[in-house]
Amino acid sequence: MKVQNKSSNTTPILIGFSLLLIGIAQITALLTLFKVILPTITKSLPLVEVQPAKFSPQIYQLEIVDNRIRLVSKFVYTDATSPKIALTQALKKLLAQSPNFDSTTTIPQRTSLLAIDTRENGIYIDLSPEFTQGGGSSSMIYRVAQVLYTATSIDSQAPVFLSIAGKSLNEDYPLGGEGLLLEYPLTRQKFDQEFLTE
Length: 198
Prior knowledge:
The protein is of the alpha+beta class. The chain is 38% helix and 18% strand.
């Protein structure tokens, strides 16, 4: 008569049970460790609140729809702390576009922002002489519109005063060879009525 060895059948069960106990002990140890360490890490990390942008300027580009030119806006990301800084960044981005490669602008290449000042009575913008060069009357109108609308993208009611290298654009000093006469202050509503409505 053969006696069957019962210990050989119980060995894998005991090994499996031992491994299960070791695994449970490790998980318990990790959970305990997290309970102790995690609150300490959380308390030591400063909370940083993400503030929404105070100023959201837009640049105004051109788009041709049904053989008509229209202004379209595009938001500019800025972390500016004042309207002046936000508008400076937006105008520089607008002026950086090249008409040779980008049909969305009539602003001549190398036009630069010489100065911008935001005052109670309006926004004063001084541009380089390149702004007056090239193009016909339509080009002149739309380049002024692009600057005007970009400058008033934070406050659409703000009056704007344009100058070229320190000289105000007016009856004595019209814009470009086409002699575009601008009456101040420039506003969106006034400019639309005079130049953009058909």
